[in-house]
């Protein structure tokens, strides 16, 4: 049996890098006051339909959806944000006057995409969400944290760009989307079949994101988002950029950046690896999401966050910063009759916190030379030898493998 297309098995060397990246994510997030949250991998289909958006690519084409035995439509989560907000609404205590909540999470996400470099059907995200603050400086803080995370992974700053844009508020987005619809209607015969679908389904914004060559040409003349932002939205965006300047964070304004999820308002951003034009992190503000999925209060729940694709990070992380495997103590046994003493020492070493390798239990088949050969693959710092001569005086020989001495 083969694994499902777009899913991968990760062996210890890769898992070690995974854990390391997650550890960096956790330690950076905790410096900014974030705490861990975890939500289910399965969620009601309706959650993503109402947040990520009925006409988004994710909901239209990429969700793993099925009916459970009771007939409820369930899906494997394609992202983490909607689940976190659902959890907070269900928990019930959050109102607009609640203190700001800061959460981080990690885990598998699922999208039925065409597998290619850095694009999988099951992938891991590390994400962070800041809930309950609408101030432009909260956008700055969370972008600073995203940047800090990527820097800590040792990816050199000349290899990635932080791209940023503002979608404006609900009204600006609606006005802009109407202008785009009118523009694309005039070019409908030149659009790719996918983009025609997007247009017909009322999602003209998604055409700006199209990778089709013909669409890219057409998009060069498309109306520009910034011309549809209200003055207050422009002012808000300016304030975010000033905040980034103040922290010395380099960014590029990308007026073509719209992101693929419908819940975004105002600031959106991505961190892109330049050589492959691949996003290793994406995020933005999503003030209206909570209301769409059952937040009962009349006011909005201002929120912003980001998520990074760990599988993509694995491709670009600086290998030098990944901690090396630790070096064990090896145990070599010269005769079957010492095996109880050897196992007892081995167990005591482990219980005292020492990583210890006993390379074989089949002492009849593997002599000391074979055992030493096996152990050398683990690069031990020390090897304890239960040899005939030493055991006569109730002692063992300890080899220091780095200094090539023995006692
Ligand atoms: P997203 O841009 O859809 O945003 O995904 C975030 C990151 O997940 C991407 O930048 C990429 O690194 C990784 N990713 C996405 N799809 C795949 C895939 N098929 N294979 C491998 N990696 C992938 C979100 O998911 C939002 N929830 C981010 C957010 C949090 N916005 C606000 N808060």
From TrEMBL:
GO CC, sorted alphabetically, is: cytoplasm
> Which top EC class applies here?
ligase
State its Enzyme Commission number(s): 6.1.1.21
InterPro entries (alphabetical): aa-tRNA-synth_II, aa-tRNA-synth_II/BPL/LPL, Anticodon-bd, Anticodon-bd_dom_sf, His-tRNA-ligase, HisRS-like_core, HisRS/HisZ
Name the CDD domains on file. HisRS-like_core
Which catalysed reactions does the entry list for this protein?
A: tRNA(His) + L-histidine + ATP = L-histidyl-tRNA(His) + AMP + diphosphate + H(+)
Keywords, A to Z, come to: Aminoacyl-tRNA synthetase, ATP-binding, Ligase, Nucleotide-binding, Protein biosynthesis
* Gene3D superfamilies on file: Anticodon-binding domain (3.40.50.800), Bira Bifunctional Protein, Domain 2 (3.30.930.10)
> A single Pfam family, by name?
HGTP_anticodon
Where is L-histidine bound in this sequence?
79-81, 111, 125, 129, 259, 263-264
Please state every residue range assigned to the domain named Aminoacyl-transfer RNA synthetases class-II family profile: 1-328
Molecular-function GO terms, alphabetical: ATP binding; histidine-tRNA ligase activity
UniProt record, GO biological process: histidyl-tRNA aminoacylation
Family, according to the entry, reads as follows:
Belongs to the class-II aminoacyl-tRNA synthetase family.
**Name this polypeptide is given:** histidine--tRNA ligase
Name the species this protein comes from.
Dictyostelium purpureum (Slime mold)
């Amino acid at each position: 049996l083969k694994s499902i297309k777009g899913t991968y098995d990760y062996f210890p060397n890769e898992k070690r890098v995974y854990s390391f990246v997650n550890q960096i994510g956790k330690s950076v997030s905790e410096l900014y006051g974030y705490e861990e949250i975890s939500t289910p991998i399965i969620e009601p289909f309706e959650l993503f339909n109402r947040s990520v958006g009925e006409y988004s690519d994710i909901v239209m084409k990429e969700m793993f959806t099925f009916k459970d035995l009771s007939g409820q439509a369930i899906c494997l989560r394609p992202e983490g944000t909607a689940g976190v907000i659902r959890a907070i609404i269900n928990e019930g205590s959050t109102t607009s006057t609640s203190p700001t909540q800061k959460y981080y999470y990690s885990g598998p996400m699922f999208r039925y995409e065409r597998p290619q470099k850095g694009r999988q059907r099951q992938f891991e995200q590390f994400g962070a969400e800041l809930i309950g603050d609408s101030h432009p400086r909260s956008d700055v803080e969370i972008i600073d944290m995203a940047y800090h995370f990527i820097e800590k992974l040792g990816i050199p700053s000349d290899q990635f760009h932080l791209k940023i844009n503002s979608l404006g508020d609900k009204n600006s987005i609606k006005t802009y989307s109407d202008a785009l619809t009118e523009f694309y209607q005039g070019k409908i015969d030149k659009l790719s079949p996918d983009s025609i679908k997007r247009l017909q389904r009322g999602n003209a914004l998604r055409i700006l994101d199209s990778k089709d060559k013909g669409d890219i040409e057409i998009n060069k003349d498309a109306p520009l988002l910034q011309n549809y932002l209200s003055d207050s939205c422009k002012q808000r965006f300016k304030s975010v950029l000033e905040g980034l300047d103040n922290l010395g964070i380099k960014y590029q304004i990308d007026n073509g950046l719209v992101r693929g999820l419908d819940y975004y308002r105002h600031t959106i951003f991505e961190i892109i690896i330049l050589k492959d034009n691949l996003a290793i992190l994406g995020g933005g503000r999503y003030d209206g999401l909570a209301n769409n999925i059952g937040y009962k209060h009349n006011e909005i729940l201002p929120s912003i966050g980001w998520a990074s694709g760990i599988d993509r990070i694995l491709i670009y992380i600086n290998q030098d910063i990944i901690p090396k495997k630790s070096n064990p103590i090896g145990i070599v046994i010269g005769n079957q009759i010492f095996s109880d003493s050897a196992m007892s020492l081995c167990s005591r070493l482990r219980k005292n916190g020492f990583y210890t390798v006993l390379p074989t239990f089949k002492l009849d088949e593997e002599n000391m030379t074979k055992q030493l050969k096996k152990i050398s693959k683990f690069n031990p710092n020390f090897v304890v030898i239960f040899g005939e001569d030493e055991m006569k005086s109730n002692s063992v020989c300890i080899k220091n493998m780095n200094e090539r001495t023995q006692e």
